[in-house]
Amino acid sequence: MKKYIWIIASVAVIFLVYHFSIQSKNTRLENALAIQYSNQLTTASEKLTKLSDSIDQTLLFKDREALDKPLEDVWRISSDVRASISALPIDHETSTVWMNYLSRIGNGASLVKTGKIPIEEWQKNMTSARDNLRELSNQWAFTNKDEGKKDYIVNTFVLNKVNKDNEKSWKQLGDSAKAYTESDFPMTASETDHQKKKDLQQIEDSDVSLEQIKQKFVQLFPELKDATIHTTESSNDAPYPFYHLQYHKGIRIGYADFTKKGGHLLSFLMERPFENTTISAEQMKEKAKSYMKSFDYADTELVDFRENHIAWHLSFARVEAENKALVYADGIQLKIAKDNGELLGLNAMEYIQKEKIGPQEIKPLNYKELFSDDFSVEEERLCFVENKELQQRLAYEILTRSDSIGTYKIYIDTENHEILQAEKLP
């Protein structure tokens, strides 16, 4: 009798172990699937918002050439969104309705681009379509609430999909989840990272000595003349030669970097405690202007500034001498203390790496032919921005606004009137 009881107990133990093992595997699979579907929902939501933004740009222009790229984007992104929605574990009826809706948007953009549908008819229909897309995006975001809460995602999507009609097994879905979480291709080195390693060959100045750099440091920062300074030179494998000065004076510590060629200030950083007092924005701008002049960076203009609880963060761009156009690629960033306006940080790397600017014709724009009737131009100035070939092009920087669509900053080539960039402002 004891023998049978032992056998039964052993079988029960084995069954329980097997049951918990299977349950554990299913739980892990549910977690993997929840992450997969959460990522899919997030991606679909982001693409819908991007599609809506692209439609906004087709409402901005009425010029055919200016509309060409936005319409191409709408056709391309709508196809991409359809692929994302088709992969979502939603019921067939809902999927079909939205797939058809997106197909009509993509096909409509293509027909407008080829001239088969008047742009006026497209813009009239898309005013409501953009709102529908944002509503769907918000629905996906709500469904994916609580950062893809596992129980909600599993109950709504995983269990809805798995074995609903015995179409798929847990193993097949497990293989699918694994495929989604593995990378098939290794990452390649970033081309932009390579661009950051310019060797400053355009600087034709002679080399300066370390002693000269120390003197320049005191000249630029006289309040630190009594600081303890430790100096080093860049290593042999550095992209360009520079001097690194570390300083310490009382509660202030930091560093400054200077190029070996010409002794140009590349960067500066200071750390110290902060008081509760706050200077005004106008005082901050005057302080920044004074710093730029003393560093011999006076050929710049303030283009943006922001603040946090301890400092102002400012961005400057070089002003091209011939036509006063901003060269955004030749930028300088400043950090100024809010309590007394003291310089806390500077980054002049982009400014030192000056862009080569070539001559370019300036042809006037006809805004009435370019923009839709409900858009008004509020500001215009010249600047240099990159085109698709990464060439610096002289462009009109135009701030235009519509009560229904919002405010856009648009960059248009002054010579061929190509739309280089179109950015919707918050």
Chain-averaged pLDDT: 76
Instruction: Please state the overall shape, judged from the principal axes of the Cα atoms.
Output: elongated
Instruction: Quote the distance from N terminus to C terminus.
Output: 80 Å
Question: What portion of residues is helical?
Answer: 40-55%
Number of domains: 3
Largest sheet: 12 strands, mixed
Class by SSE composition: alpha+beta
Task: Give the percentage of residues in beta strands.
Answer: 15-25%
Catalogue the unreliable spans. 9-22, 144-150, 161-197
- Element order: H for helix, E for strand: HHHHHHHHHEEEEHEEEEHHEEEE
User: How many β-strand stretches?
Assistant: 12
Counting DSSP H or I runs of 4 or more residues, the number of helices is: 12
Gyration radius, in Å: 30 Å
Domain Sporulation protein YpeB N-terminal: 26-113
GO biological process, one term: spore germination
Pfam family, one: YPEB_N
InterPro entries: YpeB_N, YpeB_PepSY1-2
SSE diagram, text form:
Layout: H1 2-60, H2 64-87, H3 92-113, H4 119-143, H5 145-148, H6 150-161, H7 170-181, H8 191-195, H9 210-220, E1 228-233, E2 242-249, E3 252-259, E4 265-271, H10 281-294, E5 300-307, E6 311-319, E7 326-337, E8 343-347, H11 349-352, H12 367-370, E9 376-386, E10 392-402, E11 406-413, E12 419-424
Parallel strand pairs: 7-9
Antiparallel strand pairs: 1-2, 2-3, 3-4, 4-8, 5-6, 6-7, 7-8, 9-10, 10-11, 11-12
Q: Could you walk me through the main structural features you see in this protein, from its secondary elements to its overall organization?
A:
The chain has 426 residues and is an alpha+beta fold. The protein folds into three domains: 180 residues; 143 residues, TATA-Binding Protein (2-Layer Sandwich), CATH 3.30.310; 58 residues. It has twelve helices and twelve strands. Strands 1, 2, 3, 4, 5, 6, 7, 8, 9, 10, 11 and 12 form a twelve-stranded mixed β-sheet that branches. Helix 1 packs antiparallel against helix 4 and helix 1 packs across helix 7. The termini are far apart.
